[in-house]
């Protein structure tokens, strides 16, 4: 790290945290870490004792093949043991006398929204059991897949835990995905039912979720897949307000708190399929015996972008994910029973699965579920919520930190943040400037900053500081979590031990939370993660270790772009672009972005005789939004009469990345078929790029 300015480059853990923390020094960390990698059975076996198991493992505690040369990749923890993650997350605490503890505070998009308020562990259990019974009565059973497409409301956690209680595999799709993306995911997972809500306010925008679901289900039925049920939570309409059910359409009255723009929402109704959540919840029983699941039975699938363009259904199993989500939550945030914890991620992403739902609940934590955005009604919202609930541990994304930084410190400092102890981040590399602002301004230099590196695939944190133990360096995720053995690998598959040499970040042995397969495509699992370096799990990220052994993750080294912490596949965007009738070919590359970290820059070659225009740029941007989702909209679309290609016809993305940023130093072009395209592309760069 650059030492030339005055900021220190090593931040010791705050003393007040060290005294109360689970791991109080680097020596303690090293000792625990050593045991976790040398004796995984002993380490995780002790942790497993804190959970309820209906029966013990029937075979080995951990059994795996991590080496594709030796046959099929397989990972099994505690196979044969029977448990239920919903029981452990909820019932276990009630049995321990914690039923009245608050599980979630719900904070609506509008600060005036209070209608759901908070929910205790006992109340949550009643709701989960009710919805489990409804799922059961609807004919759904263990092993079936149910899609969930919902806003950040308590019913989302109820729906996911009800699935988990019955052994139904939930497939949550972030409610910012388009109807087409939702349909693709429903079809790939062959989901038999879906849970959604009427709509949601995001900031000052009203989204009609039900109508998006209607379009998605229409696409599914055209492809011969019919869902038996669509459960709809009535979220926008005041609770207890009756809806005029006129057969096929419900009109919402324009009755909103003052700050909301008024607009009515139409809900189309398909008899026999559509069911109002509240209509069935009222009478359902609050008793529901959990289904005792094998530790290796699937718990959920969650789609993540794949470099070929088609999203992959990452599959996690019950036992290992339970141990890993709970343990990473406990140590990385140094969870204490009186904490008020808040993770701002949407449950539709893995961060929400692990650190809004399963991790906190398995620790009997009290957390906040926030429906809104950091900017509504203004850029002080996060800090207002921290003051309101006296949040102690806070987890958000670098992109949010960078965006909020721009509004100035007053939005932060006018609120009381003295309750804060841990400030964590996830999703992308955090630049030192944002790290320091988070530490100095938000945390008033009193908090531990915890930069957690992990992936949908890893189930939970893999590289992270521990708040009471690890001295941190801005921009480094520091050291491996328990059970993780990181290796920096050269392209040739040689382990790099020299400091400050970048290579591929890979992991040597499995940990309980690692994904078990790609749903329906085990071969893709093996080729994506295990073929490049036999014997290792390949993250797809680059990293280096500095002279002190700190790990610095440098970003993706495959054709993926990390936009605001959301991984996008360039191939998926390219295929959306070439669907446009005027586009012959498209190539998409990553471009640096001040707030989003990265954004996408698209080169499009038009068909003969077609004109490039501003209107076309807009159409293409809209097409990507519609096809994938609003968060995937490209920032730049440029005309490319020709693309730089090798003589064998491969697009030279490395050269395009240089052109995108206006860097004339394009590197080696000796393998290029036609060098003249480069000058043309530089001339055609959009002025704003
Ligand atoms: C990719 C995984 C894990 C939850 C959110 C994203 C990048 C994530 C960091 C970090 C540097 C990071 C990586 C990774 N990433 N956290 N702390 N420092 N990069 O989950 O969508 O599966 O994306 O996000 O590139 O591979 P995801």
Give the topology.
Elements (H helix, E strand, L loop, with lengths): L14 H6 L5 H13 L1 H9 L13 E4 L8 E4 L4 E2 L1 H11 L6 E6 L10 E3 H17 L7 E5 L4 H13 L2 E4 L6 H11 L3 E5 L2 E3 L2 E3 L1 H14 L6 E5 L15 E3 L14 E3 L5 E3 H5 L11 E2 L3 E7 L7 E6 H15 L7 E4 L6 H13 L3 E5 L10 H9 L3 E4 L1 H8 L4 H4 L8 E5 L5 H11 L5 E5 L33 E4 L13 E5 L9 E2 L3 H8 L7 E9 L5 E6 L3 E4 L2 E4 H9 L4 E11 L3 E10 L7 H14 L8 E4 L13 H9 L14 H8 L6
Parallel strand pairs: 4-19, 6-7, 6-8, 7-16, 8-11, 11-14, 18-19, 18-20, 20-21, 21-22, 31-32
Antiparallel strand pairs: 1-2, 3-15, 4-5, 9-10, 12-13, 16-17, 17-25, 23-24, 24-26, 26-27, 28-29, 30-31
Helix pairs in contact: 2-3, 4-5, 4-11, 5-6, 7-8, 10-11, 13-15
Bound molecules: 5'-O-[(S)-butoxy(hydroxy)phosphoryl]adenosine (WT7).
Strand order of the largest sheet: 14-11-8-6-7-16-17-25
Please summarize the sheet with the most strands.
8 strands, mixed
Helical content stands at: 25-40%
Bound molecules: 5'-O-[(S)-butoxy(hydroxy)phosphoryl]adenosine
Strand content: 15-25%
Oligomer state of the chains in this structure: single chain
So how many helices?
20
| Overall SS class | alpha/beta
N-to-C span? 29 Å
Mean pLDDT: 93
Round the Cα radius of gyration to an integer and report it: 25 Å
Number of strand elements: 32
The global form is: globular
Q: Unreliable runs, pLDDT <50, ≥5 residues?
A: 239-262
How would you describe what is shown here?
This protein is an alpha/beta fold. Helix content is 30%, strand content 22%. The strands form 9 sheets. It has an 8-stranded mixed beta sheet, with helices on both faces. Strand 18, helix 11 and strand 19 form a beta-alpha-beta unit. The two termini are 29 Å apart. The chain binds 5'-O-[(S)-butoxy(hydroxy)phosphoryl]adenosine. Residues 304, 350-351, 426-429, 451-456, 477, 539-541, 553, 556, 562, 565, 567 line the site of 5'-O-[(S)-butoxy(hydroxy)phosphoryl]adenosine.
